[in-house]
Amino acid sequence: MNLNRFIENLQSKPRTIRIQILIGSVFICMIFVIWVWAASLNLSQEASPKGTGQASGESTLEQLKGVGKEAFRSLEDFKTEFEDLNKAKQLEQEEVEPVRLPVE
Question: Same domain, yes or no, for 64 and 38?
Fold first, then answer.
C-alpha cells in the first residue's frame, strides 16, 4: 500500500507543485523514449549492410526529414477531418422546425 500513500501525498500537494511534478515526469519519460529510439536507430544502422535499407543512397537525416514531412501531412489531414466532423456536428445540432402536416 506504499503506492496508495504516495498518490495520496501527491494529491494533497498544491496544484502548482503537482503540475511541476507532472512536467518533470513527462520530461524524464520523453528523454527515455528518445534514448531508446536513438539506440534502436544505431542498432538498425549497424545491422544493415551499407547500401541496403537506404533508398538510392539517402542519408538517415534525409530519411528522417521525409518521415517528418509525412507526419506533418498526416496531422494536416487529421486536422481537416476533425474540422469536417465538427462542422457536421454543428449542422446536426441546429434546431430544425418540424414540418406541419395538413390536418383533415
Answer: no
Q: How many domains are contained in the chain? A: 2
Residues 11 and 35 in one domain: yes
Cell of 2: 506504499
What is the pLDDT at residue 57? Answer: 55
One domain, residues 7 and 40: yes
| Cβ atoms within 10 Å, residue 83 | 10
Q: What is the mean pLDDT of residues 20-40?
A: 89
CA distance 41 to 63: 12
Please say whether the dihedral angle defined by the alpha carbons of residues 40, 46, 48 and 51, taken in this order, is positive or negative: positive
- What gap in Å lies between CA 41 and CA 70, rounded to an integer? 19
Q: Whole-model pTM?
A: 0.42
